[in-house]
Write a structure and sequence with these properties.
Elements lengths: L2 H17 L2 E6 L5 H13 L3 E5 L1 H10 L15 E5 L5 H9 L7 E7 L2 E4 L4 H6 L3 H39 L3
Antiparallel strand pairs: 1-3, 1-4, 2-3, 4-5
Helix pairs in contact: 1-3
Length: 173
């Protein structure tokens, strides 16, 4: 790769980092061609963009990008691939699912909406993160619950009152 190509790659990666709220760094070294292909297919079907990058070029891109990524520099050792996603827990779920059949990929670090997670020990916490849509759904369900209870109580009470009125009206005087 020539110096111009490297600079262009770093510039392109910097733009991606600036536009991304979520990215994961993973180690996929040691995956054979078949498993590597399966991982890429899983990423594609999960709407996750994965690229293998050189650590030195990724570090330059992180330095040029807007934001503070200093904590991620310690994870730039060995083989590194970067995963860009729309949902915060998408790559974590993919990694966890893939590791049921293989030892790799190993989570090196993650950047999710200004929060940085370092190390594979954070994988379970990242899987448990809820996406924006899931949180909105939970909030709507919580808001609907009291209204459903009130409507249910009114409907059942209305039936009881109607029954009582009917019984009273049919009663001989």
């Amino acid at each position: 790769m020539t110096k111009e190509e490297k600079n262009q790659f770093v510039d392109d990666l910097t733009v991606k980092l600036n536009n991304a709220n979520i990215f994961y760094l993973a180690d996929i070294a040691g995956l054979d061609a078949e498993n590597s292909s399966k991982l890429r297919r899983s990423c594609f079907s999960g709407n996750i963009q994965m690229e293998v990058v050189k650590n030195s070029l990724l570090k330059k891109a992180l330095e040029r990008a807007e934001g503070n990524y200093d904590e991620l520099y310690v994870s730039l050792k060995g083989n590194t691939s970067i995963m860009f996603a729309e949902t915060g827990n998408g790559p974590a779920k993919l990694i966890k699912e893939f590791r049921k059949k293989s030892e790799k990929p190993i989570l090196k670090g993650a950047f999710i909406d200004q929060a940085i997670f370092i190390g594979d020990a954070n994988l379970d916490a990242l899987v448990a993160l809820k996406s924006k849509e899931e949180l909105i759904g939970d909030i709507i369900a919580l808001l609907q619950s009291p209204a459903k209870n009130v409507i249910s109580a009114l409907q059942s009470s209305g039936g009881k009152i109607a029954g009582i009125v009917k019984t009273l009206s049919e009663r001989p005087e």
